[in-house]
Each structure stands twice: as C-alpha cells, then as structure tokens.
Amino acid sequence: MSDSISEPPYDRVWNFSAGPSTLPVSVLEEVQRDLLNYKGHGMSVLEMSHRSKIYGQIISEAEATLRRVLSVPDNYSIIFLQGGGTGEFAASYLNLFASTAVREKQRKLGRQLSCDYLVTGSWSKGGLQEVQRLGGKPNVVLNGVVSAESGNVAYNSLPPVSEWKLGKPEETAFVYYCENETIHGVETPSDLVVDAVDPSVPIICDMSSNMLSRPVDIKRFGAIVAGAQKNMGPAGVTIAIVRKDLLERDDDPEAIRNLPSVLDWLYFDR
After folding, report:
1. Active site positions, annotated
2. pLDDT of residue 189
3. pTM metric for this prediction
C-alpha cells in the first residue's frame, strides 16, 4: 500500500482553517453547476426571492435534513439567522428575557433574574461582556483556572464542578456556555454542564465549532446556537435550535421593546 497522499483536485490547498472550514469538492461542484440556472428554474439561487416557492423548498429541505441528522425533537424550532455566533451573544439574552417563562419567573422573584456564564475562553467571555453591555445581571460560574504559581487566570482547563458557583435556580434565567473554545482550545463536555445544572434552568449552548461532529441530546438544552461555517456550511448562516416554550410570549409590548427584529428568534420562526 502506498503511503503517498493524493493532491487535492483543482490545485486546491490543504486547508486546516478552523473556519470558514473546507467544503467538500462534490458540494462545490454542484454549486458551480447550479449557479447560473438552479435546477432548471432559469435563475441563480443568488437571484431568487426568499419568498419564492423554489427557495422555500431549499430552506425546508435544509431544516428537515438538520432535524433528521441531529434527531431534533418536534418541540424544538430550527431557525436560520444571520449575525454569526457573536450576534447570538445578544440574541440569547434578549430572547430569553422576552419569553413568558422567564418574565413570569422574574415577576415571582420580584427582582431581576441573573444569568449564569461559564467563561472558558474568548467566545464565552464575549457572551459575558455582551450581556453586561445590555444591562443584564451575569453571575460568573467559573472564569478559567487560576495558576497556583502566578495567580493569573488561564483558559487551558476546567476547574472541578465542586468549585463552580452556579446561581440559585429560582434566581437564574439561564446558563450559558460555549462547548468548544477554538481560540484557547478548551472543550467543555455537555454532560458535565447539564448534570450540574438544575433541570428547571434552561441551558443555552454555543456549539459553533463542534455542531454535527457528534450526536447531541437536544432535549437537554433550552437552546443551541451555532455559526454554520465550522462544520455545516459557508460563513453567513447562523442556526438556533430553540425549545418552543421559550419562544412563547405574552402581549405586553415591554417584552420586546429592546429586542431588534434581526435578533428576534420568534420573528424568524414563521
């Protein structure tokens, strides 16, 4: 058996970028064939109305495929968005606090609910900073690990669960974490988080860099958000898989006063 590796076709380079990631040549070839005239419909997909029947079929097929591959339960919506994972820093917070479930919980408490953040690297730190910017009340469950020698915080491992500072369930709107930090290289096993969090508190997980790399027990999460460019497709598409009860809202206009339509999950779940 030869130990040589064949060169990529079309003089393509070996691309090991974390994202935008490599797309299969067969997919690129199909896109190339259909670019001028998509499936014989006389126009490029780049020229189609997003309200057209043809495009509706494309997005419906994409949703059905993702639901089948990830075994997404019927009580979860799959929402196609823009804004990347960074946009979902704000969207996660704003949509949860617009939901009937969180608003009723906050009314019962009589004061603002906190949001638990597991800071394990650059991306979860970005989520924390965004909720601070928006006037949220974050509780930092963990912030990397402190070096015994220097006393500095490093994002290269996880402290034991016994050292996590999770908020009281009745005072917490949600728990947010990034499952795989591509910059610092820390991956947080989902079971570690889900088993530690009270079941009454929804978990919001940024799975941008490892979505579709393994089976996921979707029903254990309140919402999963991900930029598509790591494992699912080209940059520019964002996916939110949201438990439907977290999309329920009352008629109070205050619920969405600070929620822009472009970040509104319910607006796009139609």
Report:
1. 123, 206, 230
2. 93
3. 0.92
